[in-house]
Automatic annotation (TrEMBL), chain A:
The chain crosses the membrane at residues 104-125, 153-172, 178-197, 236-262, 282-301. Belongs to the binding-protein-dependent transport system permease family. It is found in: Cell membrane. It holds the Pfam family BPD_transp_1. Keywords: Cell membrane, Membrane, Transmembrane, Transmembrane helix, Transport. Gene3D superfamilies: MetI-like (1.10.3720.10). SUPFAM superfamilies: MetI-like (SSF161098). One of its GO terms (cellular component) is plasma membrane. This is Peptide/nickel transport system permease protein. PROSITE patterns: ABC_TM1. Its main location: membrane.
Automatic annotation (TrEMBL), chain B:
It comes from Sanguibacter gelidistatuariae. This is Peptide/nickel transport system ATP-binding protein. Residues 9-257, 277-515 form the ABC transporter domain. It comes from the Bacteria. Belongs to the ABC transporter superfamily. The lineage of its organism: Bacteria, Bacillati, Actinomycetota, Actinomycetes, Micrococcales. Keywords: ATP-binding, Nucleotide-binding, Transport. GO terms for molecular function: ATP binding; ATP hydrolysis activity.
Length: 330, 528
């Protein structure tokens, strides 16, 4: 497949994702009840009079049928206008722009840390041999599963309790852009991701070490550590890379929790606040930006995967088709 | 005992055991001299693979620790019994090289041929420029054309034969005096295998000692000087290849020799009925990466009569499997027409075919992949019976394929390769088909098991007046089972006729080449 067809396919997929996500969010927010006019007039529990409410409704077009409101929203998106926030009366693009950097920093640092943890644990665990090896591998596996299932809010609370309240090593809230304030939120986000990346990598390393090409390398006189670094690691990294794109999505959703837990500014906080006040333009805008970011990241993961695995695509797919056809007739 | 310096490999009383498994090798004696090729033959489970790994000091590979002891175990001048892990690593590659079966899995698919072949040298700190020079020479010595191109290619870009040659190059790049070859030609087409064996013979003549492991006597007969027969971890017979093949003494050896498919199909010619399956002008084209097209099947005509076994022979990529899939209607032709029992088959609607699917059944090469691993054998057969109108029971099907009733409660993974193939045949028979399409049904099996399955298929053909399409790259197997044969090349049928006629007087040069590749399988086997 040519690079152009690949790029066109990706762009098409991104557009489709953006459309589906904004549509779902738009209708879900309206179905959840609540009145957006309250956001316009100062938030839930607003004391505005009926005249003011009616005025706001017609000013913002909220008195028109829902489908018309939806089409208006879509037309805005198509012309790259995200509109103004109901509550803050600021352009949505400005609001998101101010918060995006903070969230991206958090998510990218968490993904990087998750890779460092997963790689170190997986490579160290495969080096232990014999009875020790079985014990280590059992412990590591238990640790990975535990890490994977830990909820962010619980993990974050524990980390604050230990490293902030008791030991006082790191601040529990992020003030300004201090690097120390970034530590606990990043660790909170990274640990569950590291758990499952580690499992994938360890499986990949074990599989590669047991493969005939590893036997061939041993027969050439290669040591186990050379086989690990020169052969197995690339094979183990491939599935972890493609999963990293996917896990970036869960990092962004985890950021919603972590940002409010640590009092960090960011897209997550913005989204959370906007949802509770039914600030439709902000919610739709943020979700759109998150979805597009996710598409960009998965595309990047795909590109990196192609760099690591230079084999031409297509052959495997043809085999898959054959196998499926065979399975169908048997 | 002193070290005999004239031997490349000298093993006396080798014992290898694993905790929980017991002794796998029980006092094996084995010597190989420079310029000699010694073959070790035996069935699966005889201890061949453990022997291969032990010679390289890799018996513990795969997790469970092996206990290795020997009265004598020297590779060249090195007494390996006192070797440290580091000493073994220095010996591997430079003192002894290894060539495994399946070269696709045995070369790292992510690395270039140059990096893979040069690894032995890189480990020994040979400077890069010199390394490239030596890798190119090794590729050439292994019989690869345009070595500069191969140097930058990856295993997936090479054909099976070229990959096997690259693997041989990777074993001989540091010029070890001893090469261990584990089934080096089993995965290859007959003509390609013959050429690879020629290359190995040239290495042997140049003074390299070869230790060749195989389950196939016909394959080793071509280049081995001596043969060692292994059974249940012990040497049961050894001697010059011609003597062992002509006058085998031990029952295991006799079984191995008898199992090598040779000679014409036994028994009378079948009584042929009307035409069951017929193809006229059938073609199938596939797009290739890069925008081109390949004609996998090109304008093929064939007629399969009731009670006839039709062989489809050719090398990988000749279109025989595609044609088999068209006959199964698993795939449809772009041009031409296939009829079943006189009625449209490829031309029928999907719904129209559905009611007649049971008439044509598949026996696959790898039955394990075609079973649901959670199903027991009994459930696999009951499901198949439920789809047909047959009144037979799973037990009767097992009798038909000569499997004990005890397998009913077992899952496919716990069955042996031969038992799985019998189960696949039983499943196909459950629908009482008129035609069986067998796609390389025995190519993954040991020779002795292969012979049993072939006998079973011929028996079924006779007792049930079954028609069969038998796809194979192995001419000896085809001659043993088929009544007529189509020789395919690049999608076209280049020769067709009754099997014995084609074998006696091949018309097409390609058929002659195929036959020559098989005939060179040793003078002893030609007598049959």
């Amino acid at each position: 497949m040519s690079i152009f067809r690949w790029a066109a396919g990706r762009l098409g997929a991104a557009a489709l994702v953006a459309w589906v996500v904004t549509t779902v969010v738009f209708f879900a927010l309206r179905a959840a009840g609540g009145d957006p006019t309250e956001a316009i007039l100062g938030g839930p529990g607003s004391q505005a009079g009926e005249d003011a409410v009616a005025q706001a409704r017609s000013d913002y077009g909220l008195d028109r049928p829902l489908i018309v409101q939806y089409l208006v929203q879509m037309r805005r998106i198509l012309t790259f206008q995200l509109g103004d926030s109901y509550a803050r009366k600021q352009p949505v693009a400005e609001l998101i722009g101010a918060q995006l950097g903070s969230t991206m920093l958090l998510a990218v640092c968490a993904l990087a840390l998750a890779w460092v943890i997963a790689l170190s644990v997986a490579t160290l665990a495969t080096r232990a041999q014999g009875v020790l090896g079985r014990v280590v591998s059992g412990l590591v596996q238990a640790g990975e599963v535990t890490a994977t299932v830990m909820p962010h809010f619980w993990l974050g609370a524990v980390l604050i309790l230990v490293f902030s309240s008791t030991l006082g090593w790191f601040p529990a809230t992020s003030v300004g852009a201090s690097p120390a304030g970034l530590v606990l939120p990043v660790v909170t986000l990274a640990i569950p991701t590291a758990g499952f990346l580690g499992q994938v990598m360890r499986d990949g390393l074990d599989e590669a070490a047991a493969s005939p090409f590893a036997t061939t390398a041993r027969a050439r006189g290669a040591s186990e550590s050379r086989i690990l670094w020169r052969h197995s690691l690339r094979h183990a990294a491939l599935p972890a890379i493609s999963l990293s794109g996917w896990s970036f999505g869960s990092l962004l959703s985890g950021a919603v929790v972590v940002e409010s837990l640590f009092g960090r500014p960011g897209l997550g906080r913005l989204l959370l606040d906007a949802t509770s006040t039914r600030d439709v333009p902000v919610v739709v805008g943020s979700v759109l930006v998150v979805a597009l970011t996710y598409t960009v990241v998965t595309t990047m993961a795909d590109g990196v995967e192609r760099l690591v695995d230079p084999r031409p695509r297509g052959a495997d797919r043809a085999t898959d088709r054959t196998l499926r056809a065979e399975a169908a007739i048997v | 005992m002193s070290i005999d310096e004239t031997l490349a490999l000298d093993i006396r009383g080798l014992r290898v055991s694993f905790a929980g498994v017991g002794e796998v090798l029980r006092g094996v004696d084995l010597t190989v001299a420079p310029g000699e090729c010694v073959a070790v033959v035996g069935e699966s489970g005889s201890g061949k693979s453990v022997l291969v790994r032990s010679v390289l000091g890799l018996a513990s590979e795969g997790g469970s620790t092996a206990l290795v002891s020997a009265d004598r175990f020297t590779v060249g001048r090195t007494d390996t019994r006192r070797l440290s892990a580091r000493g073994w690593r220095a010996l591997r590659g430079a003192g002894v090289g290894l060539v495994l079966q399946d070269a696709l899995a045995s070369l790292d698919p992510l690395r270039t041929i140059g990096a893979e072949v040069g690894e032995t040298l890189a480990l020994r700190k040979v400077p890069r420029a010199q390394r490239r020079e030596r890798v190119l020479r090794a590729l050439e010595a292994a019989g690869l054309d345009s070595p500069e191109l191969r140097f930058v290619q990856r295993p997936g870009q090479l054909s099976g034969g070229m990959r096997q040659r690259a693997l041989i190059a990777s074993a001989l790049v540091a010029a070890p005096p001893l090469l261990v070859l584990d089934e080096p030609t089993t995965a290859l087409d007959a003509t390609v295998a013959a050429r690879v064996l020629d290359t190995l013979a040239a290495l042997r003549d140049a003074g390299t000692a070869l230790l060749l492991i195989s389950h196939d006597l016909a394959a080793v007969a071509q280049i081995a000087d001596r043969v060692v027969v292994l059974d249940d971890g012990a040497v049961v017979e050894h001697g010059p290849i011609a003597r062992v093949l002509m006058a085998p003494e031990h029952p295991t050896t006799r079984r191995l020799v008898d199992a090598v498919p040779h000679g014409p199909k036994p028994g009378p010619a079948p009584a042929l009925g009307p035409v069951m399956l017929s193809a006229r002008g059938v073609s199938r084209t596939f797009p290739t990466p890069g925008g081109g097209h390949v004609r996998a099947v090109d304008n093929v005509d064939l007629d399969l009569r009731r009670g006839e076994v039709l062989g489809l022979v050719g090398e990988s990529g000749s279109g025989k499997t595609t044609l088999a899939r068209l006959l199964l209607a698993a795939d449809l032709p772009d041009a031409g027409d296939i009829t079943l029992d006189g009625e449209p088959w490829s031309g029928a609607t999907h719904r129209g075919r559905l009611g007649r699917r049971h008439q044509v059944q598949l026996v696959p090469q790898d039955p394990l992949a075609s079973f649901d691993p959670r199903f027991t054998a009994g459930r696999i057969l009951r499901e198949a019976l439920a789809r047909g109108r047959s009144t037979s029971s799973p037990a009767e099907l097992l009798d038909a394929v000569r499997l004990p009733h005890s397998v009913l409660g077992r899952r496919p993974r716990s069955l042996s390769g031969g038992q799985r193939q019998r189960l696949a045949i039983a499943r196909a028979l459950a629908l009482e088909p008129d035609v069986l399409v067998c796609d390389e049904p025995v190519s993954a099996l040991d020779v002795t098991v292969q012979a049993e399955i072939l006998d079973l298929l011929v028996g079924l053909q006779r007792s049930r007046a079954l028609s069969m399409v038998f796809v194979s790259h192995d001419l000896a197997v085809v001659r043993r089972v088929c009544d007529t044969v189509l020789v395919m090349r690049e999608g076209r049928v280049v020769e067709r006729g009754p099997v014995e006629e084609v074998f006696a007087e091949p018309q097409h040069p390609f058929t002659r080449e195929l036959l020559a590749a098989r005939r060179s399988a040793g003078p002893a086997l030609r007598r049959a």
